[in-house]
Each structure stands twice: as structure tokens, then as C-alpha cells.
Amino acid sequence: MSVKRTLKRLLIHMGVRALEAPTFERFHRNATRNQRARALAKLAQEFGVKRMVAEGRFGEITSDVADTTVFLSYAEDGVWAAATNKLVEDFFGDNGFEGTYVDIGANIGLTTIPIAKNSKIKCYCFEPETRNFGNLSRNISSNIRTSNVQLFQLAVSDRESMLEFEVTEGNLGDQRIKGGSLGPSLLGEADRRSITVEARALDDMGLQLADPLAVKIDVQGAEPFVIAGGRRSLSKAALLVLEYWPYGMGRLEAPVEILFSFLEQQFGSLELVFKEGASSSPPAPVNDVIPELRRYYEEHKLNPSFYLDIIARKSSQKAGA
Predict the structure, then answer these.
(1) 63 pairs with which residues across the strands?
(2) Theoretical Cys-Cys bridge with 16: which of 11, 93, 149, 190, CB 3.0 to 4.6 Å?
(3) Taking the model in full, what pTM does it have?
(4) 124 forms bridges with which residues in the sheet?
(5) pLDDT tens digits for 136-165?
């Protein structure tokens, strides 16, 4: 059901009949997508709604009523992270639809479910935040009928520890490790409530990583810590997709050189994608791309709106090596 129809039904059910006609249509036409999503979330919360369900390409997906980014996008468009999912699906399609997929920062499951529908692909999913993990569990249970998915309510970091997490309302995909006192706070992080989550190193998990292995890492700037605690496991990946967000890494004072050296040592080519669904840069040898990534880090570590995805592949053939 679209946001417009859902919002209208809620208003009518609550007795706001005046918005059945032109007033409602003007609101929907003139309001931004974010304003409509927030209006829907606010009304639902006031009406005692805790969770909502939307149907789309990946099945019926449940999320918290406050999820006005990932979930509302899926409700409106019927899809989320389509380009990333296609990339991983194509990788496994080229390899007989079998192997292992590790989703670090799985959120509510929209980057796991499309892959896990192939029962011969073993999927490991990591999501530390309680609300997201609850909805991840529901969504996997209702959309995946086989036993090829294993869920972990854990953060993945460089060692076993308890981490303080910043929790935001609205964008439930932006739950992240609390930044250091020296880091910038340009998105209102200082006002966010905090929770404590358990963290473990990937190399300590004893995962059975059958080839071929694909890994997606989207942990809001903590990617270098994931690498630091998972070199042995991640070195087995033929495909690695990770978010590169200089602002988030800068807030955490993350060891970005660990990320760069790992990519140089383990992969043959890199592609950069500056927006979900946009064309990627041509595959290039890793050593040619790392200086560009270093420059982006220095130029944008105080710019919260800049990010890109890195696609790393073992083979450098596509890069002409």
C-alpha cells in the first residue's frame, strides 16, 4: 500500500474526514516525501501503532513505525538498494547460486532476503540494534522458508567488547557506534540517546565460509574496525561491497589506513559508486584508486552528505591487469 493511501486511511479512521477531499490532496501534492513519511509516522504513533508492514518485490516487510527512511522507501517504491542487491545476485548467479553471503549491518533484512531466497547460499547477518534486529528476525522468518540464514544480534568490530551506540529516530539505518569526544557532531549526534551493544571480531566467530564468498559491510563509518577484526575471514571474499563515509569514519577516528592496506593486499580491482543505482566508475587496479579514496577522506571528513560504495573484486581482469 502506498504512503498516500495509508496516510489517508489513518486520517479517516481517526475521524479527520475533512482531509478526504481537496485539503488532503493539496497536502499530499505539496508536501515532500519526507514530510509525508513523518506525518504518517506521527499519526501512527499517536494511534498506538508500533510496527507497519509493506509489500514489495522482496515480500511483506515489517519495520518500526518510526522508520521513515529505509522502510518508507520500500513502502513507496517496493524495493530497497536494488543496485546493490543485483550486484550480489549476479555474483552468485555467475557461480551457480551457491556459496556464502555475509551481511554486516543487515538492518531489517532488505539486503539479505533477495540473496537468501536461493537456498544453496548460506547467509550470515549481523545487526546490533534491538528494534532493527527484531524486525530483521520477523522479515527473515516470514519471507525465507529455508534454514540457510543465521542471525546475530551483534556489532562487528576489531575485538570482543561492549560498545556505546548512538540511536536515532527516523532513519533507523543510521544507528552507529558513538563518536569520540574529538569528533564532529554535525547531525545532532550529541542529542541522541545511547544504548550498549555487544561486539565481536568476525575472525572469532568461527563462521563456515564456503566459496564463493560475498560480503557487504555498511556500518556507518566503522568499516575499518570490521576489517581489523576480520582480515582472515574477509580475505576469502571474491566480492566485497562496503560503504565509504569519511564523516562517519572521522567521528570514530577509525583507522582508515587499515582499510586501504587490506584492499591493496587482497583485491585486484575497485569500482566506486557515488549513489545507489548510479553507474559505477570503470574497474581500476586497486593501487590506482587508493590515492583517490585518501583524497576523498581528507576533503569530506567534515561533510556528512558525502559517501560512496566501494566494490572490490579479487580478479583484476576487468581492470585490464
Answers:
(1) 52
(2) 11
(3) 0.88
(4) 102, 150
(5) 999 999 999 999 999 999 999 999 999 999
